[in-house]
Amino acid sequence: MAKILEQRPPGRNWRVYDWNTWFDGNVWLLEPGVDFPVTTKLQSVRGAAYMAARRRGVKVTIGTSDDEKSLWIQAHLPT
Description:
Elements: H1 19-22, E1 27-30, H2 42-56, E2 59-64, E3 71-76
Antiparallel strand pairs: 1-3, 2-3
């Protein structure tokens, strides 16, 4: 049977991304080590963004920076 823990186990990345801010319609540059862990692959962040957008009913456009180390993201808000 599942158990309730007093706190989260150590060693797991429990970072919560700031989707509410990033889905405001502006173009945001998401940088490794600042907005997501350096060890996280860009494909993972891109996938998480698409899933977060779908949960919120928002359409997003996502691209890679010229150096392919960062992502840019823009939400398309309903008019």
